[in-house]
Amino acid sequence: MTENFPHLVQEMDLQVQEARRTPNKRNPKRTTPRHIIIKMPRAKDKERILKTARERNSVTYKGIPIRLSADFSTETLQARREWQEIFKVMNTKNLQPRLLYPAKLSFRIEGQIKSFTDKEKLKEFITTKPGLYEMLKGIL
């Protein structure tokens, strides 16, 4: 952490709750590379670290580039699940839906990309688009 995020370590009292290595999924006998799973007691710390890592574009461990990925909290997973039915319908109608982090639905309509953080805002929007309203009226 001090190698990649020295200013974050100084700002917040960073505590790692648990850290462990997991074997490679394809060949468990292979010693490297392994995934390192780090559990943190505060989700805000994890979000700040991931945001800083995205801005930097490169994170290293002992001088070797590594990749960080987010493990979603239960709240985030539940919010993403709520979009699944709408996502499937939009996907069949070729609207190119995407679920953005943490739980935001984005899709292409009339050449523009629209994003919605909750279903209420999506409901307001689809009332102005009759075709989209007919497609999603049973779900929303």
Walk me through the structure.
Belongs to the transposase 22 family. With 140 residues, the protein is an alpha+beta fold. It has two domains: 6-66, Alpha-Beta Plaits, CATH 3.30.70; 74-137, L1 transposable element, C-terminal domain (Rec A Protein, domain 2, 2-Layer Sandwich). It is 38% helix and 21% strand. The strands form three sheets. It has a three-stranded antiparallel sheet with strand order 5-6-7, covered by helices on one side. A two-stranded antiparallel sheet has the order 1-2. A hairpin with a 2-residue loop joins strand 6 and strand 7. The radius of gyration is 20 Å and the shape is elongated.
Put the structure in a nutshell.
With 140 residues, this protein is α+β, with helices and mostly antiparallel strands. The chain has helices at residues 6-11, 43-56, 74-82, 84-92, 119-126, 130-136, and strands spanning 18-22, 35-39, 59-61, 64-66, 98-100, 104-109, 112-116.
Number of β-strand runs: 7
**Rg over C-alpha atoms, rounded to the nearest angstrom:** 20 Å
Basic shape:
elongated
> How large a portion of the residues is in β-strands, by DSSP E?
15-25%
Could you report the average pLDDT, rounded to the nearest whole number?
79
What is the CATH architecture descriptor of the largest domain? 2-Layer Sandwich
By CATH's scheme, which homologous superfamily of the largest domain applies? Answer: L1 transposable element, C-terminal domain
